[in-house]
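[step 3/7] fold_predict: job queued, chain A
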Amino acid sequence: MISILMVCLGNICRSPLAHGIMQSKLPDDLFYVDSAGTGAYHIGNAPDKRSINVAKQNGLDISTQSARQFKVSDFDAFDIIYAMDESNYNNIVSLARNTRDIKKVKMFLEANSSIQNKNVPDPYYGGQDGFKYVFELINDTCDALVKELID
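[step 4/7] structure written:
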């Protein structure tokens, strides 16, 4: 089984969406998907209501997810770790114990050739439109990643 971890800052906006979207696109007998945040701001909380709403509008229920903080043991538990932006990538890599850990960490949007800026924007301080845009961006990127993972 291939295990995938989606990581953003607080684990309430971007990574829960990526977690839910990716999980819905991959066979659960072959892949395990989870999410975490590099910060400890929202540990134990459900995703942001706006993330829950945009997911629900697209047929996904992410309301049962619970925010947690990325930890060093995640390098052992996961095969691939996708960072939502450069800041989170750097925070994750700073915890790496060796080059094997570092090789597991990838920028999520690297798989999306139609996007120049490889940072998934954080919609937290904006309105619902930002969440809709982030959902579409993550959904399109997950489609590209699924092709890479399954082919």
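[step 5/7] annotate
The radius of gyration is 14 Å.
The chain has a mean pLDDT of 97.
exit 0
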